[in-house]
Amino acid sequence: MASESDGAARVAWIRSRMPLLARARVDFAESRPFDGLKLGMSLHIEPKTAVLLEVLAAGGAEVVATGNHGSTQDDIVAFLRDSGMTVFGRRDDSLEQHERNVRAVVDSTPDLLLDNGADLAAGVLAAGTAGTVTGGTEETTSGGLRLRGELAGAIPFPTIVINDSPLKAIGENRHGVGQSVVESVMRITNLMIPGRRFVVAGYGWCGRGIAQYLRAFGGRVAVAEIDELKAFEAALDGYRVAPLTELAEWGEFFITATGHPGVLGPDVLELLPDGAVLANAGHFPWEIDTDALRAMAHTVTEVDAAIDRFDLPDGRGIVLLAGGRMVNLAGREPKGNSLEAMDLGFLLQTLSLERVATRADTLSPGPQAVPDDIEREIARRFVASMGASR
Ligand code: NAI
Fold it and tell me: What's the CA gap between 54 and 72, in Å, rounded?
């Protein structure tokens, strides 16, 4: 059973390694940009998020929050509640309960939204309360796609899409996700990377980082990418590049990072070698077609909390990590992205929310990029905090 003190100790360690947020907390305690405002959040509830919420609360925000399905850390929920925040959800919530948690945040009629996957934006539209929202931020690629796709033209308040930030793309998606996905696959499987054959699906920001860190550990890496320019870049970066159906028999590990559904579908699954290990880094748990895998299997064995083995009638066994959810956030003892990468990403969140709260008149309705002056200010602070200029 998780205790509050576990959560407090873990948050304290992480707080001590996030210097950018520490400075923002001091600044906000003085300027109080969120006084009188309620912030609704839907983002992974883990220690780093707790440090972000502390900064926003220090700036005067009343916090009402929930996590993402399957990644909520119960000791951190306990810690946040103890700090006076309203938090819905727990680790083993069903999908239905998770949806109720998101609705509870929407029903609290927040002024500001800190969103992940555009769940809250879609929620306030469905509830008819979008008109009372001052503005918000969206953390992910997938949420940005949704705001510009199915929700295009419908959002009446400014939403700063953190994922559009070049700082986040380089610092978090590439280097943060790259490191943590590789670390998670190693930790969960306890298998060797050097000399093993990896297929990375998607050579966007996350895929580039995953391929880079696999290679840094001595892995042999191939890339499957549908965008010709990114496939070209991967080839010049020295990776084998081919369609997934061609790489299926070659690979031993397959990692998806595309943000699109059914990337590892039946056409690929039927070609995989015995013992193939599948993991997903993309936001939604749909990149690996786990329903198709389940339908193909005669037996599914839960090896442990993060490993399932699917035995197929032709004698092959396929290994799925973290149920196809984000392997760096949903696996056993997940650590998520590095503290420095998240310090950077969360300062983008923090200063963007401050801009929305205090200068919404300078922003237009709907999804938009992080203002350039915020990007440059954070880049300066980050380099200074690393001592990189020394
Ligand atoms: P991105 O848009 O930079 O890259 C995605 C790439 O996948 C694109 O180059 C696209 O052409 C390619 N792609 C799409 N369908 C494909 C297919 N069927 N086969 C091969 N390639 C395909 O996006 P980014 O920033 O790399 O994000 C990828 C996913 O990772 C998103 O779902 C995002 O939300 C998620 N993400 C996960 C994090 C984590 O901690 N696990 C953190 C940040 C983002």
Answer: 17
